[in-house]
Model the fold of this input.
Amino acid sequence: MQDPDPSVAYGNELLKHEQPAKALTIFDVLIQHNPDDIDALFGKATALVRMGEPQYALGVCYLILAREPSHEAALALQVKILMSLGRFDEALQVLSRQLDDSPDSAARWLANGKLLLRLERWNDADHAADEALLREPDLFEAWMIKGDVALFHTRSGDAISAYDRALALRPNSKSARRGRMQARNSWRLTYFIAILPDLLELILH
Done:
């Protein structure tokens, strides 16, 4: 049985069935016929990522963005690749430019916050989460960022509240439950340390 004629749809179907090498061949044929085929270029970048070739995929993302600077999927893939390569500052620059272009985008504030959290820029991450929640109050990942930041700063009550909001959105989230448990344990430890002098005084007298 012969393969169908090359098309973006067929290439994407191959990607869905975990056949990136075969999909890459399809996308390359399409690009040879039309070097400005954005959909084929994006398919190629995705196939290269699946094949463990992030550097080549990043180059294709640059080609896409040179032709269509606001291509959301290509921008997201670019950031993902940069992060996978450990080039966090470059990824943050891309996200910052995206925010400059669309400051009212909750998704972009959230992406910014997630990267800032990874860079352990706690206060900046918290601010980004607040901005995301201001635009979209039911963002699970934004509440998780706020919980993680509060936990780092040992603000146990704030952490518990944030994780509770996250759990209200995703009751079965293991990460939210784990964070809440850590915050609860931190609160107990803080409380015990606070009352320890009084306990010692009672014991000694």
